[in-house]
Known about the structure:
Blueprint: H1 11-17, H2 24-32, E1 36-38, E2 41-42, E3 54-59, E4 62-68, E5 85-87, H3 91-108, H4 115-127
Antiparallel strand pairs: 1-2, 1-3, 3-4, 4-5
Amino acid sequence: MRSQKELNPRIDKWLYAVRIFKTRTIAANACKKGKVRINGIDAKSSHSVKVGDVIEVQNPPITRTYNVMGLAEKRMSAKVVPDFMEEVTPPQELKKLKMIRSASFSMVQWKRPTKKERRAIEKLKKRGML
Length: 130
């Protein structure tokens, strides 16, 4: 077994191992499409990850940001993930996601939106998020 210093995982393997993506193929495709950045630079799926790197993953409508705290190539338990990465996504990005989820939830219920929900939907449409 290799030590942490010898381990140089590819970005697609690391994203899969820390459960950001459901499969390694999806992680590799995200890299191909330019949705993954390491320290502000677009990353190919073969790019290696180092402790201390900042990884940005575009998952429309928001961009999530993670700090690499440990290296891993194999998928791990969800309980262990916090030892390997820290999410540092800005609060305004998470707020956008919360607004969209609340607006879309009312649309999925197949009923007329309430006045409050309609105003929230209109607000999102004006901002170009819907």
